[in-house]
Amino acid sequence: MLESRNLVVVGPVPVASPVRGLRVFRERVRAAKRDGVPPPDGSPDADLEIFRSHIRAASGAGVHALLTPVATREYGEDAHGNLLRLGEFAAALEAEAFVARGVPDLHRAAAEGRVALIPCFQGMQMVEADLGLIPGYRAAGISVMTLTHPWKTSFGDGVFERSDRGLTARGQMAVEALNAAGVVLDLSLVGRHTSLQAMEASVHPVIFSRSNAAAIHDHPANLMDEQLRWCVRVGGVVGVSAFPDIVSGSTPPTLDQVFDHVDYLAETMGVDHVALGLDFDDAPRRRFPTDPVPEPPYRYPQGLEGFGDLPRFRDGLLGRGYSDTD
To answer: What burial class does residue 278 get, using C-beta atoms within 10 Å of its C-beta: 0-12 exposed, 13-18 middle, 19+ buried?
Structure first.
């Protein structure tokens, strides 16, 4: 069996896009109309081919597992449908991918040359009315949940809110419920005060699946040093993001600017607490005109625009002085 250090896990990634429901498809149709290009094909067969292309690109780049968003702002029925659809797609590509239920499945994926899919919810709106649903979602394969959107929920504030009021009483209950069910708590795009209180409340390690260092680029989605120190204290990890607007203020960012975030996180937290978030995704992210993100298409860093660039990313890390073990 491979040691954990030899596994390559990346996420969140656009393999999720075909299974994120009607909302994303409608947003893409509106974007195509605005840009004067043909609308996307929304058929199941077309979605499956998109899914297959992402799986093969990840596998070809040496990736063993993908953190796969199943729902973003969807509520119960739509979230259920997306989860079922992910299962159907995985079954159709059984020789290449499968849904992971735990860490042993990640090792199995590496040994078998397949890609393990780690389903996650970005936001917990599907359980806002009933936290008792969390164990059922865990049993259905959801391994990771983000506490809030970038916007306010009943659990706390998101990073795009003007307020930063911290974890609510219901948010405290949500953290406890996630811990009890064995669901990993993701705090990316969660308000800074809320994230600190959530880490203090959690008895298990947390992740920031797609965040960078505010000291390198001061964006609301990036993490202050206090958040980084708390993440280390609870045994968590930060997934370095390649999303252009949180890498730098330049368009497109450079690969060196991504490495600047890696270096700062590694120096501040220790290399064992730095992960690959990357966050390759072409879905629209702006909900309100004040949100500090652009409309797609996004211009990812030159040299880190997709899975095919991962070997270059690895070479760049070696060039920065990181070892194979790092």
So the answer is: buried
